[in-house]
Amino acid sequence: MGAVPGQELVVLAAVGRNGAIGRDGGLIWHLPGDLPRVKQLTTGHTLVMGRKTFDSIGRPLPDRRSVVVTRSPGWSHPGVEVAHSLPDALGIAGAGTVFLFGGGEIYAQGLEWADRMELTQVDDAPEADAFFPPWDRGEWEETRREEHEGFAYVSYVRR
User: Does the N-terminal or the C-terminal CB of the chain have fewer CB atoms within 10 Å?
Assistant: First the structure.
């Protein structure tokens, strides 16, 4: 599906039972093994994220291309490509595997084009100010689940 021919669009997020994904401009979760998994999944691919998500990371991640969506016309950062809308960012990303990397607005806008989701489903419902959008589970097929204490890595493909 993707927004661009030849593009596989993958949503990558850690989500609480209540849809929580972030608080105060940062991640809520610090789960053992999650960051190495993110690295393994995304290395060599393109990450598309909002500016607040990028700011929470503070730098482009090694061995990955970063496209940041911002409404600020003069914003720039070394090693980052800038877009002013999600469709523009997906066009810049081009063909290949592209990960939607957050935050909530990016997920909400991009979910309709996503081919796959790689979610860390966390068995907790903390206070948050950033949330994953509601999604129709009937449109997605679970293809893999790896259970851990308090969370699971779950892969979905669009039906």
Answer: C
In a domain, 144, yes or no: no
SS3 state of residue 86 = helix
The CATH number assigned to the domain holding 33 equals 3.40.430.10
Q: State the pairing for strand pair 130-131/20-23.
A: antiparallel
Instruction: Convert the pLDDT of each residue in 89-139 to its tens digit.
Output: 999 999 999 999 999 999 999 999 999 999 999 999 999 999 999 999 999
Whole-number Cα distances in Å, 5 to 43, 114, 153, 157: 21, 13, 28, 18
- Could you tell me if residue 151 is inside a domain? no
Report how many domains make up the chain.
1
pTM to 2 decimals? 0.96
Query: Which pairs from 38-41 meet CB under 8 Å and 24+ separation?
Result: 38/12, 41/10, 41/12, 41/99, 41/118
In this structure, is residue 43 part of a structural domain?
yes
